[in-house]
Amino acid sequence: MKTVAIAGTFDSKGQEYAYVKALIEGLGLKTYTIHTGVFEPTFEPDVSNAAVASAVGESIEAIAAKKDRAYATEILSKGMAKLVPELYKEGKFDAILSLGGSGGTALVTPAMRELPIGVPKLMVSTVASGNTAHYVGTSDIVMMPSVVDVSGLNSISTKIFANAAFAIAGMVKFENKETVEKKPLVAATMFGVTTPCVEFARKYLEDRGYEVLTFHATGTGGKSMESLIEGGFIEGVLDLTTTEWCDELVGGVLNAGPNRLEAAGKKGIPQVVSVGALDMVNFGPYDTVPKQFADRNLYKHNPTVTLMRTTVTENEQLGKIIAEKLNMASGDTVLMLPLKGVSMIDAPEQAFYGPEEDKALFDTIRKNVNRDIVTLEEMQNHINDQVFAETAAQRLIDLMAKQAH
């Protein structure tokens, strides 16, 4: 029989959790309860708050004595992040559900993020309708808005809690039995302005027996890809769109953090990298672009996205960053330069056409890349030319075949 873990503050929200627990058990599933509150629970849990605290060498009594809610949340969330994946590995549960406000969400989502992708994870939260990136991270947590506060049972909350119980039950009961042929798994990065390139490369790879996961280079996409690489899921990386570094450098809204472009190198995974969309920094609607950039070359990509052309100086900085990251690689690495343009709008008569800016990028890369570690390949093509895309795909196939032998 499948088991749903229910994790939360059974001291302050015991009534709500007892309601959800009864619903899930009424559907023929087992429950496994984990208490994350500081004080005595309203019902006996399977895992006590003392066990959660001790997972990180702390005492629940000492935590309670401090009377510091922020401190308690920090320690117990760390305990959950350590303990919950261990309990999952022991076969204690098959899915996990929680309810809470911002504090309760912060308590349990770090633990959910530590569980493997595919394990059902549902967080009913008062903050689910806002920016949930710091709760979800690169995991597959489902965030459900609670609409009203998670405080008592009423005509609204009981409907939301029931929907959550039925949703997690459905996730764990109805398992997809369809088997998918196991193929070598390749991760690729794409942006709207590099879509033709990645589509050509994806088809080329799939026609030759590879499975391609495409990640939209919007910050979260890059982080997700790096996380899967670190997790050992990926066998080859076609990182053609490294634009997230523009936002990290200049202050755009789609950055993937300072560790972008490191995972494959650290893991020794074969990688073919390019400079796709390094001509642009991303902002929101036009009127949200910071005032210091008012005189820059701005392009309204759509009503919610404004692009800004990178300068010569910024391209020199980007070239140094790309070279520095790839010089760290412990596995086979190819860096490909499309000398006729790095994005759909970096082409003659297009908004971001910039031979001078591109030259600064290419020259800096040539100067800084370590040729003993990175194979540098230059092509007199635009990044979206089919021959460039298929050449990049074939280079990756060659690297993967070399590693296999």
UniProtKB/TrEMBL annotation:
Which residues belong to any copy of the UPF0261 domain?
A: 2-176, 183-400
Transmembrane portions of the chain: none
Q: Which domain of life is it from?
A: Bacteria
Task: List, alphabetically, the Pfam families matched.
Answer: UPF0261, UPF0261_C
Question: InterPro entries per the record?
Answer: Tobamovirus_resist_UPF0261, UPF0261, UPF0261_C, UPF0261_N
Q: Which CDD domains match?
A: Tm-1-like
What Gene3D superfamilies does the annotation carry? Uncharacterised protein family UPF0261, NC domain, Uncharacterised protein family UPF0261, NN domain
**Family matches, as NCBIfam families:** PRK02399.1-2
Entry protein name: Tm-1-like ATP-binding domain-containing protein
